[in-house]
Write a structure and sequence with these properties.
single chain, 7% helix, 4-stranded antiparallel beta sheet, 405 residues, mainly beta
């Protein structure tokens, strides 16, 4: 299955940078926590490509499924700028007892209202499955605006690559699509939830955020028939809007707007109000200094429903509990040198006194305070120089961060 992600490259002031970014994806066949330490010795490079940073500073990238072997347990993403690694991310696959997954293909360009959207997706299923009934639901600002279902015929061929899951089923990857009409209710963005139910009552799901062009339902246009008129001459004011619209018009002297403070109501203000009503996870980036998911993070199909803003009640297998392999975590601690020595047994320590121990206070050592070094001269940055920072180190280059799920 392919992997899609986003990388944001900005300057310290939040403005997008200009230039090229190189993204490197490596993999490991050995699973483990943190994706670091001794596991990184067995990594193999799968994908390397240079991208030109667009105007918004967000780079969309796709790692083809043909580049990712089925035996891969862990992916490691690295972003480089001028041969310097500035951002890291180790995504982990969602847990499924049957190794069944759905991966929606990201739509990069915003959809237009009135058009028919076609969303491609990859999914895994066993070789004995003939047909799969996919269900999709589209939510906007916490409301269900569209839904449907599609019966997909499984096109398994004996020449396809397969792998066995924990239930000893032969699994393979197939591809499908769904279509829906983009309506005004989906502005400015909507959340697509796609799922199907296996024969063993396990739910396989995925979701993603879809951007729609910022258009208002009732477009109002106000203009004068003539561009220039002299005082005392008649003129015409032409107003274009939907039938039955109420348009309020006021007239003030032009000098009133010379010192305006940007408090006029614009279309962007209306779109921002609609965007603030999204009930899904926040788009605000939460900084992770190490870039790796903790070992206790276990995502499954329930995350797709949660990210869509849904509270579900079902007797199906939506949340798949997976016990944490604590031994592997201790093994990682031992290999990385972070494990603490075991405490001695009670017999080897001898008799112990009960009650509160007597602690002798230690005298504070007097230290001489160092004189403050006050800087009085500061270099000026010319037009050709940029003072930048990174998410992980201050090296005067760039701030990079992965915006992946």
């Amino acid at each position: 299955m392919s992997y899609t992600g986003q990388l944001k490259a900005t300057l310290p002031d939040g403005s997008p940078m200009k230039g090229n970014i190189e993204i490197v994806v490596t993999s490991s066949r050995r699973g483990g926590y943190y994706g670091y330490g001794y596991y990184r010795n067995g990594y193999k490079e799968l994908f390397r490509k240079r991208f030109k940073v667009p105007v918004n500073g967000v780079v969309d990238f796709i790692v083809p499924g043909s580049e990712i072997p089925s035996t891969v347990k862990l992916l490691s993403l690295k972003a480089k700028y001028k041969n310097k690694s500035l951002a890291y991310h180790d995504p982990k696959h969602w847990h499924s007892p049957s190794n069944s997954y759905i991966s929606l293909e990201r739509i990069i360009t915003p959809l237009k209202v009135g058009s028919i959207a076609k969303v491609m997706f990859d999914f895994t299923t066993n070789t004995e499955t003939k047909n799969i009934d996919f269900h999709y639901q589209i939510f906007c600002r916490g409301k269900l605006v569209a839904q449907g279902r599609k019966l997909h015929a499984v096109d398994y061929q004996p020449s396809m690559k397969t792998s066995k899951n924990s239930k000893n089923e032969e699994m393979f990857t197939s591809r499908g699509f769904i279509e829906f009409v983009v309506t005004q209710k989906m502005v400015p963005s909507c959340r697509l939830l796609l799922f199907h139910v296996r024969d063993d009552r396990e739910i396989v799901a995925d979701n993603m955020l879809i951007d729609v062009e910022d258009t208002l339902e009732n477009k109002v246009d106000v203009r004068f028939a003539e561009s220039i008129r002299k005082p005392g001459e008649p003129t015409r004011l032409i107003i274009t809007a939907a039938p039955g619209s109420q348009v309020a018009v006021t007239a003030v002297d032009k000098s009133v707007h010379l010192l305006k403070g940007g408090n006029e109501l614009t279309q962007d203000d209306a779109i921002n109000v609609l965007s603030s009503q999204d009930v899904g996870p926040s788009r605000r980036y939460r900084r992770n200094l190490c870039g790796y998911q903790p070992h206790w993070v276990r995502w499954d199909a329930s995350k797709a429903f949660k990210d869509s803003g849904i509270i579900y009640f079902s007797d199906l297998t939506v949340k798949c509990e997976r016990p944490v392999n604590y031994y592997s975590y201790l093994h990682y601690r031992w290999k990385s040198g972070r494990a603490r020595p075991l405490l001695a047994s009670a017999k080897s320590r001898g008799p112990q006194a009960t009650g509160r121990p007597i602690v002798t206070p230690k005298k504070k050592q007097e230290t001489k305070s160092k004189p403050l070094n006050i800087r009085k001269e500061f270099p000026r940055h010319g037009s050709g120089q940029r003072k930048l920072s990174t998410s992980y180190r201050e090296d005067g280059e760039l701030k990079l961060r992965f915006l992946t799920r």
